[in-house]
Amino acid sequence: MRCDKCNIEVKNGNVCPFCHKILDDNATAIESEYPPKQEKKPLPLRFSPKTIYLIFAIIASLVCIIVNYFTERDVLWCWFMVSVFAYGYLLIANTIYSETEIGAKIFLQGASLVGISYIYEIIFKTNVATGYCIPIIISGMIIISGGLLILYYKHNKSLFISTILNSVLGSVPIIIYACKGTSVLIPAIISAVVGGATLILCVGFGLKHLKEQYKKVFHI
Questions:
Q1: 138-147 burial, b if ≥16 CB within 10 A, otherwise e?
Q2: Is residue 160 within 8 Å of 149, Cβ to Cβ?
Q3: C-alpha span between 34 and 20 (Å, rounded)
Q4: CA 220 to chain CA mean position, Å
Q5: Taking residues 139-160, what's their average pLDDT?
C-alpha cells in the first residue's frame, strides 16, 4: 500500500509510519512495525540550582563565621557575608526561578539591597546607607521598571502600576534629607528627579491610552 500524503510505499501493515494514517479504511487497523516517535524530555536534575546554592551558602557562611571569630572579633564582617549569601539565595529562589510579578521582584530586590547596605553600615561603622545606597537603589529600581515598561507594556500591564509606585519612592531620599536624616544632597536630588520625570511620563502615557479607550467605547 502507498501513502499518498507522505508519498511512500508501506510494505508491512496498513498504517503509515510517518503520519500514522490508516491506508485502507475498509481493513481493520494493523499496528505498524514502527513505534511512535517519543518526545525528548530533559533529564531531571537530582539537585536544583536553588538547593546547590543553598548548600554552598551555608558552608561558606560557616567558614566566614569561624574565620572571623578565630582571627578578629573587633569587626564582625562575617555577618555581612552571611547577608550577602542570603541575598544570593533570594535572588535565585524568588527572582530567577519564581513566577512572581516582575514589579514585586524589583521591589523585593531593592528592599533586600537596602537591608544589606544598613548591615554594612552597622558592622563597618560608616554612613553610606541613608545618604548614598537608598537613593542609588531607588533610582535603579525606577530605571529598571521604566525600561521594562517601555519594552513590554503591551504584554504586562501591571508594570505600569509598579513603575508609578517606584517613581513615588524616588521622593523618599529628599524627604529623609529634609528631615535631617542625612547630609548628602546630590544622590537625593538625582533620585527625586528620576522619580519625578518617570512619574510624569507614566501619567502622560496613561492619560493618552485612557483617552484612546474612551474614544473607542463612546465613538467620539
A1: bbbbbebbbe
A2: yes
A3: 10
A4: 40
A5: 83
Main-chain phi, psi angles of 22, to 5 degrees = -75, 120
Compute how many other C-beta atoms are within 10 angstroms of the C-beta atom of residue 210.
10
d(CA 113, CA 176): 18
Q: What percent of the chain has pLDDT over 90?
A: 47
Helix (H, G, I), strand (E, B) or coil at 113: helix
- Cα(185)–Cα(167) distance, integer angstroms: 18
DSSP SS3 for 11: coil
- Does the predicted TM-score (pTM) go above 0.85? no
- The torsion angles phi and psi of 15, rounded to 5 degrees, stand at -120, 130
Backbone CA torsion sign across 120, 126, 128, 130: positive
Coil, helix or strand at residue 34: coil
Which sign, positive or negative, has the C-alpha torsion 58, 61, 67, 73? negative
DSSP for residue 14? S
